[in-house]
Write a structure and sequence with these properties.
Layout (H helix, E strand, L loop, with lengths): L1 H8 L6 H27 L1 E2 L2 E2 L10 H13 L1 H7 L3 H4 L1 H14 L5 H20 L6 H10 L1
């Protein structure tokens, strides 16, 4: 159990500068994800919310819940660095499905948005949130 927690929460990319860069990266990515995509999920226009594609044919409420969670809650967990590797998994799923399924026949100018989000989130999945995160704080307290 301890090794699983260490694997999920440990993240230190070396120097203070690297950890600071990762903090800034998380903040900018989280803000952009919420500002551009999360706000659309919360906004109601003409009495209706944004249409969320459902290429996997999930129940509509589940599909909407996953997409809304990925774009409204996950950005704040990402910014705080709170259970980052677990928290970003639904958003990685949404962006990869967007790239490989929803936009598979679209021109590159359209496909690049889910591609960039997927690549950015996969980088954070690999590196973790860095030492300036709640994950790091939780791990340090857990290790005592």
């Amino acid at each position: 159990m301890t090794s699983i927690i260490n694997t999920l929460l440990y993240s230190d990319v070396g120097s203070r500068l690297n950890n600071l860069a990762l903090l800034v990266y998380r903040i900018l990515l989280g803000l952009e994800l919420f500002r551009v995509h999360g706000m659309k999920k919360l906004r109601v226009q003409n009495g209706q919310r944004e249409h969320v594609p459902n290429p996997l044919h999930l129940p509509d409420k589940l599909n909407g819940l996953i997409a809304t969670f990925s774009d409204t809650v996950v950005p704040f967990l990402l910014i705080a660095g709170c259970f980052t590797r677990l928290a970003i998994l639904p958003t990685i799923g949404v962006t990869l499905i967007g790239y490989f399924v929803v936009h598979r026949r679209d021109p590159l100018e359209i496909r690049d948005v889910p591609y960039i989000y997927s690549a950015s989130l996969l980088l954070l999945l690999a590196l973790g949130p860095g030492a300036y995160s709640l994950d790091h704080t939780i791990l340090m307290r857990w290790s005592r």
